[in-house]
């Protein structure tokens, strides 16, 4: 009888081992799926069409952070700098047409009153622009010294407006 009980206990503990292995494998699979989804949402390969989510997006040799809240231009820039980045500088047509989030978004371009020029946050002068028709215009004699991407269905989509207005924003930092 004791041999029979030993065999039964051995079989029972073997089944428990298989159950533990099966449950552990199942949990590992669930964890792997969660990691894959998280990575997919946080780092998008260059061939991706920019999905409607917020966080860091990879494009070319840069990482871009798309905000999910609105702030004035200066606070938006401060947020970027706290992330080790700065507001986006549009260097290429691909960058300009790539971000179509269908809502106004700050970029790193401002008007310098003392020089009467448009400058990027890194100090470089604006050389190639994507102003919407009639922009920049200082609408109703307002001091519109900051720039947003506004008209998403058009390549030329920049609009000037007061820096105290609140907008979403895009940060950029080198991915290397």
Automatic annotation (TrEMBL):
The chain crosses the membrane at residues 20-41, 53-73. This is C-type lectin domain-containing protein. Keywords: Disulfide bond, Lectin, Membrane, Transmembrane, Transmembrane helix. CDD domains: CLECT_DC-SIGN_like. InterPro entries: C-type_lectin-like, C-type_lectin-like/link_sf, C-type_lectin/snaclec_domain, C-type_lectin_CS, CD209-like_CTLD, CTDL_fold. Signal peptide: none annotated. Residues 59-172 form the C-type lectin domain. The keyword Transcription does not apply. GO terms for molecular function: carbohydrate binding. It comes from the Eukaryota.
């Amino acid at each position: 009888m004791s041999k029979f009980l030993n065999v039964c206990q051995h079989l029972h503990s073997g089944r428990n081992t298989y159950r533990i292995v099966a449950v552990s494998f199942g949990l590992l699979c669930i964890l792997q799926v969660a990691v894959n989804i998280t990575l997919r949402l946080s780092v998008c390969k260059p061939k991706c069409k920019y999905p409607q989510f917020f966080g860091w997006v990879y494009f070319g040799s840069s990482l871009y952070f798309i905000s999910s809240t609105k702030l004035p231009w200066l606070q938006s820039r401060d947020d970027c700098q706290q992330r080790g980045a700065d507001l986006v500088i549009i260097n290429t047509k691909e960058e300009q047409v790539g971000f179509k989030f269908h809502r106004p978004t700050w970029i790193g371009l401002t008007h310098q009153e003392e020089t009467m020029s448009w400058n990027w946050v890194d100090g470089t002068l604006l050389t190639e622009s994507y102003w919407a028709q009639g922009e920049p215009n200082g609408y109703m004699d307002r001091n519109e010294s900051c720039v947003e991407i506004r008209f998403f269905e058009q390549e030329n989509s920049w609009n000037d407006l007061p820096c105290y207005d609140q907008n979403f924003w895009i940060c950029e930092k080198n991915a290397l």
